[in-house]
Amino acid sequence: MKMLSLCARYFLAMAALLALWSSSLAWAADSAASDQAKQTWQLLDYLAVDYGGAVHDGKVQSASEYEEMKEFAATAAQQLGALPSTPALPDLQQRAKALNELIAAKADAKSVADSAHSLAAALVKAYPFPLSPSKPPDLARAKVLFEANCAACHGATGRGDGPLGAKLEPPPIAFTDRDRARSRSVLALYQVVSQGVSGTSMPSFATLSDEDRWALAFFAGTLSHDDAMRTRGEQSWGKDVSAKAVFPDLAAAATLTEAALSEQMSPDAARDLTAYVRSHPEATVASSGTGGLSLARTRLQESLAAARAGDQANATRLGLSAYLDGFEPLEPALRARNQALLTEVENAMLAYRGALASGKLEQADATAQEARLPVCAGRW
Predict the structure, then answer these.
(1) Quick one: average pLDDT of 236-254?
(2) How far apart are CA 185 and CA 254, in angstroms?
(3) What is the number of helices (H) and of strands (E) in the chain?
(4) Quick check: pTM over 0.90?
(5) pLDDT at residue 131 tops 90
(6) Please, what's the largest Cα pairwise distance for the chain?
(7) Disulfide check for 262: which of 23, 35, 209, 267 has CB 3.0–4.6 Å away?
(8) How far is residue 359 from each of residues 139, 310, 312, 319, measured CA to CA in Å?
C-alpha cells in the first residue's frame, strides 16, 4: 500500500508537471500570437498614415516610400498567414489581398487608409491585445523620459531636429508634423516605442516598463498641439456632454485619431478635443462610470454598507479598492495640479481604513463623507 501510494504521488507529480509544461507552451504560443498581431497592426497603421506621402493622384511621389508601402502590405499579409487559425482569418486574408491590390493600383490615400484601418480593426477583434494602459500615464515622468531617450534624435520639442537626427537616413519623425499627427493614434506610437521600426534608426524600447512606454506614447501624441488648442479642448470637455461620449475611456483616448474624430465634428473641434484628452488622459477615467472618482465614491459607499451589515472583510476590501482602483490611478495628474487636494484625500481615505480596522463604524462613516470626493473634480 505504501509503494502504491508513492507511485500514485509520482504519477500525480508528473501529471502536474506535464500540465504546467503544457500551460506554459500555450501561454508562450498565445504571447507569440499576440506579439505577431501587434506588429501586423503596427504595419497597417504605418501604411494608413504614410501612404499619402508615397502616392498622390495615382502617381508615385517617392519611389523609395512606395516600395516601402508595398513591402509593409506584403509583410502584413504574410504575418496574417502565420497567425493561429480562427474563423475570422480567411476574411482577414481577403482584406489584406484587397489592400495589396489597392497599393499596386496606386489608389488614392483615403482608400488605402480606410482599407488598412478596417483590416487593423478586424485584426484586433480576431486576435485581441491591450489597446490602452491599465491606468492614466504620468506625463510629467514621460517628459523626463522623452528628454533622456528621444530628444537626441527627435528634438526637445519633437520637431525631428535633434543633434543626431541630421545624420540619420531616413530622418527621425517630426511629431509636430500636423498632417501625419492627424492620422496617428497613441496606440500606434506605443507600438513604435515598444517594437521600433525596421529599416530605420528607431530602436525598440522594450526594456522600459509597459507603463513608461505608454507614457512616452501619450507624450509624443501631444507634441503636434499647442496650449491654445488644449485650452479650447478643455472648455469643450467641461461643457459638452457629447465630448465625453467620444472619449469614454482610456482605450478611446489611445486608439481614436484626430482624422477619425473629424468625421464626427469639425476638424478644429476634433483637433482641440484630441489635444486636451491626450494631455489629460486621466479625464477619461475621472468622468467615466467605471473608474476614477466615480469608482472611488461607489466603492466607499459599498464599503460602508458592508461595514453596517457586519461584513468586516468585505468592508476592508472595498475600502482598499476605493483607493487603489478608483483614486490612485489619478494621483500623478492630481499631484501636478493640486497637491493639497491629493494629500487631503489620501489622509481621509487612510483615516477611513483605520476606523474600519478599529471597528469604529461612526468614525468610519464620518470620515467617508470627507473621502467621497463630491467636489473633487471641480477643485481639480
Answers:
(1) 85
(2) 6
(3) 21, 2
(4) no
(5) no
(6) 84
(7) 267
(8) 40, 10, 8, 13
